[in-house]
Amino acid sequence: MKLLYKKLILGFAFAGVVATSCSDEDYVDANTNPDILNEVPPENQFLSATISLHSQDFEAFYDTYRRIMPWMQYVTPQNGNGASFTSNIDNFSQRYGRLYTGIGDALVDMEKLVEKLPEEDQPKYVHMLSIARILKAYYTFYVSDIYGSIPYSEAWQARYGGTMLPKYDDQQTLFNTLDQEIEQSVTALNTAQSITQVSLGNYDQYYKGDVKSWVRAGNALRLKIAMRLIKRDASKTQTIAQEVLSQAADNLMSSNSQGWVFKGTAGFTSGGNWNPDLLYSTKPLVDFMWNTNDPRIDAFFSPNGYSQANINALIADGQLPAGTVEASRRYFGGFTSPDDSKAAINKKYYTPRTVEISGSDVQVDTLSLIQRRLFQPSFDEGNGIGDGLVYLPIITYAEFCFMRAELAARSITSEDAETFYNAGVTASIMWYNQIAVDGELSNYTALGGSEISDYLSEPAVAFDNAKALDQISSQAFLNFYKQPAEGWGLWKRNGMPNATTSLVLPDLKSNGATLPIPRRAPLLLLSQASANYVNQKAAYDAMAQDAGFGAGPTDAFGRVWWDEQ
Fold it and tell me: What pLDDT digit, counting tens, does each position of 438-485 carry?
């Protein structure tokens, strides 16, 4: 994987083409006049789509930090969650528009550019286009995952003489279509071509154009989509799983280095909207990780403010008694349930102390912040701007292992659940160690000794076939700490973790009532002024036939098709 430097982006970004950097006027020109793309190499559009996919800072700010992470009890504000925090869906979600302006359109343009090449040159791009279709399938799945029906089969046609009013593909049809397209792409990538292929090379920020790596990524994506079908069509899940897992071992992910992950320099997430400050760790996660001696705890969370140096300053200021020493445990998370938070505030649990150190006021807090440089390596923690690497995963090897473990635990496959559970836990610990070291996290101690084997021997972690699905879900949920949207998807699919699983996520209560948690993105209200009103209404009406859809388009507590009640 090649590191992403802004100079590289600028070097590849042709004026009026890269949607993430061009002006509105240029972008309109590019969408109404496809001839403007004639001088652009097809591979540039792949890079453009990749940058657009991962540069969504508003998605980080709203969807990740302030919606999904609190809902899933990954983080909490300093004073705990408010009484109706699960009902706050303002500015959620940010992913839909990028499919049509920035990602899907760039990849469709890529295909059209190849079609305009001399006929004898077009066969050189079979592999490149197959890779592009896998990327487009992933992001289409990612959008439909929380929206349900979306335009796909008739989308992106307007500028090439097709319809300007695309129909919506229902989610069942769409998932089948995407699976077929990925399967076809994987087959094409595995097929030797009679003519030397043009490689994406450095335009591919994931695998530098390596074909076998994209075969593995495509197969992992097929398995991921199949997992979403478990509640609706378990037989389809089994068919896809058998097709994928029966392939040669080299076609399947087998190490962290083969994961589908975007890696960039600190500057890639340096903007203010990436700022993860004032997000605190949660009591459910911290307690479980502390009690099981989880090696990832210092990759996820920062120790609280009660270092011996700060304690000494508080002693000198008269705020602590002489002789107070640093505790052996400095990881404490906040309560996630509003009722518990309210009680804790009344007990002054959250009240920080402030003391002057070297001429500056320092807040000393009992709670642990999240490791901010895990999400924004450039974050200034008072010791200057960081310059570590940022990792933005799509499908990690650990996730691939957990999917295989779950399929086995459900008897959908005949593989050994324990083997892949242990492999998933091991891969997750090693991966977080890598990104913590490369991200130059403060207060992080690199993995060493027998930490992994010791962790796998912990009573709450050691595989127990009687509670296999519980343990697999709990560990997969922890692994998704860097991918909260996937943790949300796991919870919707399995109903785990919950208040009775190994990793205990308590019910969220406000004034004694259990709060519902959103399950999908709110849809735009219908407007007859919309040019595509007829197709939009037809899609909404069809989705509303499902009993779980909810009270209406904007009901985020309703469900999409795959999330059957």
Answer: 999 999 999 999 999 999 999 999 999 999 999 999 999 999 999 999
How far apart, in whole angstroms, are the C-alpha atoms of residue 275 and residue 64? Answer: 11
CA dihedral sign of residues 523, 528, 531, 536: positive
Sole residue written with tokens 């496809």:
34
β-sheet bridge partners, residue 361: 356
The H or E element containing residue 353 is strand 353-357
Of the candidates 186, 202, 188, 285, the one whose C-alpha atom is nearest the C-alpha of residue 243 is 186
Residue 24: how many other CB atoms lie within 10 Å: 7
The beta strand positions in 199-305, using DSSP E, are 260-265
Establish whether the linkage from the previous residue to 497 is cis, with ω within 30° of 0: yes
In this model, does residue 11 exceed pLDDT 50? no
3-state helix, strand, coil in the chain (%, to 5): 50, 5, 45
Span 6-56+95-252 CATH architecture: Alpha Horseshoe (1.25)
First to last CA, the chain: 41
- Distances in Å between the Cα of 429 and the Cα atoms of 111, 213, 221, 295 are 39, 22, 22, 7
What is the pLDDT at residue 349? 72
Encoding tokens for residue 131?
A: 């890779």
pLDDT at 382: 86
Mean residue pLDDT of the chain comes to 93
Task: Please list, in sequence order, all residues whose beta carbon lies within 8 angstroms of the beta carbon of residue 305, skipping any fewer than 6 positions away.
Answer: 352, 362, 363, 364, 365, 366
> Distance (Å, rounded) from C-alpha 238 to C-alpha 146?
23
The confidence band for 13, taking pLDDT boundaries of 50, 70 and 90, is: very low
Q: What's the CA gap between 478 and 497, in Å, rounded? A: 10
CA distances from 294 to 78, 467, 536, 544, 557 (A): 24, 19, 48, 44, 33
State the average pLDDT over residues 258-283: 96
Pairing outcome for strands 509-510 and 513-514: antiparallel
The reported pLDDT for the residue numbered 45 is 98
**Domains of the chain: which residue ranges?**
6-56+95-252, 273-370+385-514
Beta strand 389-395 with 509-510 is unpaired
Query: Which one-letter amino acid corresponds to residue 251?
Result: N
| Closest by CA position to 83, among listed 547, 509, 431 | 509
Helix axes of 104-115 and 42-54: crossing angle, nearest 10 degrees: 180
What length is written for the chain? 565
Q: Of 48, 80, 77, which Cα lies nearest the Cα of 339?
A: 80
pLDDT band for position 206 (50/70/90)? very high
Tell me if 274 sits within 8 A of 61, measured CB to CB.
yes
Confidence of residue 378 (pLDDT cuts 50, 70, 90): very high
Q: What is the CATH number that goes with domain 273-370+385-514?
A: 1.20.120.840
Q: What's the Cα-to-Cα distance from 182 to each of 145, 167, 204, 231, 412, rounded to whole Å? A: 17, 22, 18, 22, 21
How far from 555 is each of 344, 522, 558, CA to CA, in Å?
32, 6, 6
